[in-house]
Amino acid sequence: MIEIDDLSFTFPNGYKALNGVDLTISDSEFIALMGENGAGKTTLIKHLNGLLKPTRGDVTVDGVNTKRASVASISRKVGLVFQNPDHQLFCETVREEVAFALRNFGHKEDVISKRVQWILQTLDLSQYADSSPFTLSGGERKRVALASVLAWDPKYIILDEPTIGQDYLQKDRLRNFLLQLTSQGKTVLIVTHDVEFVAECKPTIVLLSKGKVVGQGPSEEILTNPEVVDRCSLTLPQIAQLTRRLEPYGADKKIIDVYSAISEVKRLIRRHR
Amino acid sequence: MSMRVFEGFKFSKLPTPIHNMDPRAKFVMILAVAVAALLFSDILPLAVIFATVPPMTVLAKSSRRWAASMKGAAMLAAIIFIMNFITGSTLTYAVAMTLRFLTLVSSFSLFFMTTSPDDLGLALERLGMPYSLTFTFTTAVRLVPTIASDAQTVIDTQKSRGLELEKGNPLKRVRNYIPILIPLIVSAIRRSIELAEALESRGFGASEKREPLVVLKLRRTDLAVIAATIALFSLTLYVRFYVPLPVVESQIRMPKILPF
């Protein structure tokens, strides 16, 4: 469990990015952290593995206060995948890139090669194992970055904007993969602006605005509330817009995913026949 | 490795007389200070020249950032002092050389803190430099803070992957920087290619002769600064070559331990 208690953070230049954030992330929870640009989302997730230490308040990961532990020791539990893969790729082959963190954490060579093989297969990267990460496309580089973190099997997986630059097929795969991780008991937190992606995954949404948590709840509640959505510079998912327009005909407006929408539309058709 | 050193060379817009000066007048002033520091090698005149900088930083409301650049230069200053001292110079000479170095750093730090890259580019263009060169220069200056923030992100990313920069013997510690430097260089190159493409698609270099939107003009105060600088610098030259200055010299030396 990660507990964030009255967290405030002010940058050295005086900019106050977070202002009294309280949040509990339970084990095997799936959370989407959303909010307008500059809301403090990235600053918040950098606190979860101790890269940033709170100016006020505390962050505790499984009972360990991040102020009293090194980034390397917290990172074993909290895997943070950054937005831009180009900020981390440096090895000659994808295989080496994925093995980097495993070496840092002192795993044995045979464990490393097994883990690398496993994650490359899982993320559909096996064919690139011996290619240079720099020759891959943007979306593939992003997956290598993801693989390089998932390889050490952290308990908490935090992804900053994982859907940027991914085509629809890869987004679909990513969604299934994230849902699979949560079903295996992992805790997943994604930072995203992608309402359509969230509407299909249906995680718990935490809304951040101007350094404060302004809303928290199931996707169906948050993403169908136009005021809340507008406040965080988001828009309603397309399906929510559809069911909203069908509301006068008796549709349930708290529907955000395609499959529920299909059965709802079928129900309406039957009723109005 | 702290990125704070760059703070002392980063431009920020402030409404002060130093910021409002024409970049050419300011450059003449800063250059005079720097050349003066190179003319002398005694502690007394160097201390006087060094003392001219802090009042200017106060006037430019940038003392705190100037102090940051001094802190950044402290390491190098210490090396200069130690190298001079252990190779047989007197204590005063070693201090004088350190002061010379600090004067050079301070004066240029003041210049870059108070001159926007755009103004600098305009000034260079007026002095006859080709536009493609001045543009390269201003872009380079402008990218320094961006690359510094990139460096911080890369450090954060690799630390999240279990990299511990301060771990291991000295050789290992140097090697620890490879995962930082490679992504930084690669992303800088990628950025520059993208920038070049974006510039070309916006018609960079389409016409031979450019007409600047803002034309730099030397105002009366700028001319006064240039005149005052020339007068003071001539006086400095006169003092340097014709006036015997009192010599402050301690004979404290390091006992000879090195074979040179």
Describe, in plain words, how this protein is organized in 3D.
The complex is a heterodimer of chains A (273) and B (260). Chain A is of the alpha/beta class and 273 residues long. Chain A folds into two domains: 222 residues, P-loop containing nucleotide triphosphate hydrolases (Rossmann fold, 3-Layer(aba) Sandwich); 37 residues, no CATH class. Chain A has eleven helices and ten strands. Chain A is globular. The model of chain A has no long low-confidence stretch (mean pLDDT 92). With 260 residues, chain B is mainly α. Chain B folds into two domains: 153 residues, no CATH class; 96 residues, no CATH class. The chains are: A alpha/beta (273), B mainly alpha (260). Chains A and B meet through helix 2 and helix 3 of A and helix 9 and helix 11 of B.
What keywords describe this structure?
heterodimer; A: Rossmann fold; four-stranded antiparallel beta sheet; 11 helices; B: 260 residues; 2 domains; 12 helices; 70% helix
**Most extensive interface, chain pair and sizes:** A-B, 25 and 19 residues
Mind summarizing the main beta sheet of chain A?
A: 6 strands, mixed
Distance between the termini of chain A: 51 Å
Number of domains of chain B: 2
Measured by DSSP, the beta-strand proportion of chain A falls in 15-25%
CATH architecture of the largest domain in chain A: 3-Layer(aba) Sandwich
Gross geometry of chain B: flat
Mean pLDDT of chain A: 92
Strand count, sense and closure of the main sheet of chain B?
none
Query: Strand order, biggest sheet of chain A?
Result: 6-7-8-3-9-10
Assembly level:
heterodimer
What's the N-to-C terminus distance of chain B? 33 Å
The shape of chain A, in one word, is: globular
Classification by helices and strands of chain A: alpha/beta
What is the top-level CATH class of the largest domain in chain A? Answer: Alpha Beta
**Alpha-beta content class of chain B:** mainly alpha
Low-confidence stretches of chain A: none
Assigned CATH superfamily of the largest domain in chain A:
P-loop containing nucleotide triphosphate hydrolases
User: Which H/E pattern describes the elements of chain A?
Assistant: EEEHEEHEHHHEHEHEEHHHH
